[in-house]
Amino acid sequence: MTQSLFSLTAKQVMQDAPVIPVIVLHEVAHAVLLARALVAGGIRMLEITLRTSAALECMRVIRAEVPEAIVGAGTVCSARDVDACLEAGARFVVSPGYTSQLGLACHARGLPLLPGVATASEIMQAQDDGYTELKFFPALQAGGVAVLKALYGPFSHIQFCPTGGITAQNAGEFLALPNVVCVGGSWLVPADALAQGDYARIEVLARQAAHLAPQNRAHRKT
Ligand code: 3PG
């Protein structure tokens, strides 16, 4: 894809750290402390999912109060959502699937998009529209490492962020693949840690995630 209006590309979003946290926030009051904990642990690309009524306001407050964080919008399912995310301060978009309407809307706004795909046909549709950095979703349920190895044959130029069923335990298997740059996952932000205000635990999880497999990613920085 071309360089975005914000000088941020999908490739840069994927290369920033080994893990993009998939975040579900029900309380705006949690947003800033959570973002600070993740950033302190070394994770600054934050995917705030549009699954709660608080999501857009959470993006706004993180954007305003945690300048080290780079706010992204997740679970973006239609082109209609894109402008609201942009207005709330999102600098990248992640979607569970792909439609050309969504792809073209993000492209028109210079907003990096990591669109979700699970099949060869979906990859072909996304790449027809210029997208070669893709989320593989739902990664584990769709076949995991074995499917990514198979996709590397015809699509060796596609770079993936597998998401769905990834844990601290299995992330390394995915990150070792030549077509995986980073993974996505919700395990960095456990709902009980958020409810208890245990940001120290979240910072530890982020730090562990930030140190996953750096040797496998280093060569992709160039
Ligand atoms: C999602 O969109 O919910 C992600 O795939 C996160 O999945 P996980 O909870 O299995 O990490």
CATH superfamily: Aldolase class I
Highest CATH level, the class: Alpha Beta
Oligomer: single chain
Number of domains: 1
- List ligands, each type once: 3-phosphoglyceric acid
Give the % helix: 40-55%
Roughly what fraction of the amino acids lie in strands?
15-25%
Distance between the termini: 17 Å
- What is the second-level CATH architecture? Alpha-Beta Barrel
H/E order of the elements? HEHEHEHEHEHEHEHEHHH
Largest sheet: 8 strands, parallel
- Structural class by helix and strand composition: alpha/beta
The DSSP helix count reads 11
Radius of gyration: 16 Å
Provide mean pLDDT, rounded: 94
**CATH topology heading:** TIM Barrel
Strand order of the largest sheet: 7-6-5-4-3-2-1-8
Give your account of this protein's structure.
With 222 residues, the protein is α/β, with parallel strands linked by helices. It has a single domain, classed as Alpha-Beta Barrel (TIM Barrel), CATH 3.20.20.70. It has 11 helices and 8 strands. Strand 4, helix 5 and strand 5 form a beta-alpha-beta unit. Helix 2 packs across helix 3 and helix 2 packs parallel to helix 10. The N terminus and C terminus are likely disordered.
